[in-house]
Amino acid sequence: MKQISDDACLAYRIYPEPHGTSYLQNDLMTTKQVEQLFDFCQILEAIIYNVGWDFLIQQYGYTGLYEINNKSEWFDCSDLEEYKSYIEAYRNDMKRIEKESN
After folding, report:
1. pTM here?
2. Torsion of CA 8, 53, 76, 39, to 10 degrees
3. Angle formed by the axes of helices 80-101 and 50-72, to 10°?
4. What is the 3-state secondary structure (H, E, C) of 43-99?
């Protein structure tokens, strides 16, 4: 299992302006907090970094995240396997964006 620093930025939301909100591990310790982050991602106010997905997968597992997603309705998936595919695609997009920004 990959060790993630307690102060690593796992996700970012553009609000409140002007500095936005950085999400650390403590900010994502409950399913309600993760559901809220997914809600923000759904309306394009937030992003989850790859280290954030690493943490979320370790903390909740794919099944737990799929259940949270079903409440948030961020990704429109019919089953767990499709949900995993959406996460993988999202992570690949983030890797490409991070690479282009460097």
Report:
1. 0.91
2. -20
3. 140
4. CCCEEECHHHHHHHHHHHHHHHHHHHHHHHCCCCCCCHHHHHHHHHHHHHHHHHHHH
